[in-house]
Amino acid sequence: MGSRAGVVTALATLTLIAASCGSNPARSAASAAEEQKFLNSVYGQVPDISSYRSGTQLVSMGQAVCTDLSSGAGVEEVADRLPLVEGTDPLPATDLGVVIFTAIRVFCPKYETLIS
User: What is the pTM of this model?
Assistant: First the structure.
């Protein structure tokens, strides 16, 4: 069981690293617009989320969702992994669901069939 936890931790770390690459200041205007659309949608559904997660953290989490899905993970697996990426104070399950579903719709709509 210890080796499985190590693999999950390693995958979560790689996902976080991959997601942080999206925060490059030279990102395209389309990326910035996508990020803003994602944040507007998340904030619209969970207005108080900004009191415990920054926009940068939320975008990183959203990008991690797509990275995990592109690696072959299912939505449930992503939901299990994401709290490992986000740190010691995990989001409430409802808020986590909003982040996951919004990330799929905005950042990686090719996986929308997984949530339909």
Answer: 0.73
The C-alpha atoms of residue 68 and residue 73 are separated, in whole angstroms, by 6
* Helices and strands, number each (H, E), in the chain: 5, 0
The phi and psi torsions of 112 (rounded to 5 degrees) equal -60, -25
Domain chopping of the chain, boundaries:
2-114
Residue 37 CB neighbour total at 10 angstroms: 14
What are the tens digits of pLDDT across the range 61-110?
999 999 999 999 999 999 988 877 666 688 899 999 999 999 999 999 99
Distance CA 13, CA 115 (A): 25
Question: Are 32 and 74 a contacting pair, CB within 8 Å?
Answer: no
